[in-house]
Design goal:
The protein has eight helices and ten strands. Helix 6 links the parallel strand 8 and strand 9.
């Protein structure tokens, strides 16, 4: 974590750095499983271990959801116990939101903005009911098609919505993906950008530099390393 905070410094631009850890809590699978949902949920003990580590480093923990054929609202409600904690938020993976007849690893999934709005509203009500600080609800997006009707997203009180652009490849390809994917981002949604240590180097030759990332327009506020 200390090393990651050092790497984050060039992106700070005078702002305070807030460390964040993402844990895949619901994992998508290529086989249906007993309930036919193509996903499994992580053990509570693992979430507790990660939360303990996050708190040791004064970091926020985001529970990443890859829902398979389940819906995002159903999945996030399964983690209500954890989302009542003041330092736990959500990271949603629409590319793994499968429709009827769709199989993970064989096709990209997608989510409608209405479903994300439903999630944000539920989180907003949770925040109000338990007098919690603002909650992060992040959604990852690797191409324009995985979030349908994105301009119809609406703000929810007590919820900070972030869109993380996840394109893989060369700096030029990632910049192009950024421009296309952020084009429909509502103004109230904060921008995020993902760097892949292995995949970006393997497919594009190198990682983008902090200066290149921070030159993107609009300027990303959330930088994710994988």
């Amino acid at each position: 974590m200390v090393e990651m905070e050092k790497r984050a410094q060039p992106y700070a631009k005078g702002r305070k750095i807030m460390p964040v850890m993402e844990l895949i809590a619901t994992t998508v699978h290529g086989s249906a499983g007993k309930d036919g949902m193509y996903r499994s949920r992580i053990d509570a003990a693992v979430i507790q271990e990660w939360l303990t580590t996050a708190r040791k480093h004064k970091a926020m923990l985001l529970l990443n959801i890859q829902p398979g054929r389940a819906s995002f609202p159903d999945e996030i409600k399964a983690y209500e116990k954890w989302l009542k904690e003041p330092d736990v938020g959500l990271a949603l993976d629409p590319e793994w939101r499968m429709g009827p007849g769709e199989v993970p690893m064989k096709t990209f999934g997608h989510v409608k903005a209405a479903e994300l709005n439903e999630c944000a509203q539920w989180v907003s009500e949770l925040v109000a009911k338990h007098n919690l600080p603002q909650k992060v609800m992040l959604y990852h997006q690797l191409n324009e098609g995985v979030v349908v009707n994105e301009p119809t997203l609406v703000p929810a009180k007590g919820v900070v919505m972030i869109k993380s652009v996840d394109g893989i490849g060369s700096p030029g390809a990632k910049v192009d993906t950024w421009k296309r994917v952020v084009a429909k981002k509502p103004t109230f949604v904060h921008g995020g950008f993902k760097l892949f240590y292995q995949e970006d180097v393997e497919t594009g030759g190198r990682l983008m530099t902090p200066a290149e990332v921070m030159a993107l327009k609009p300027t990303p506020e959330y930088i994710l390393f994988e």
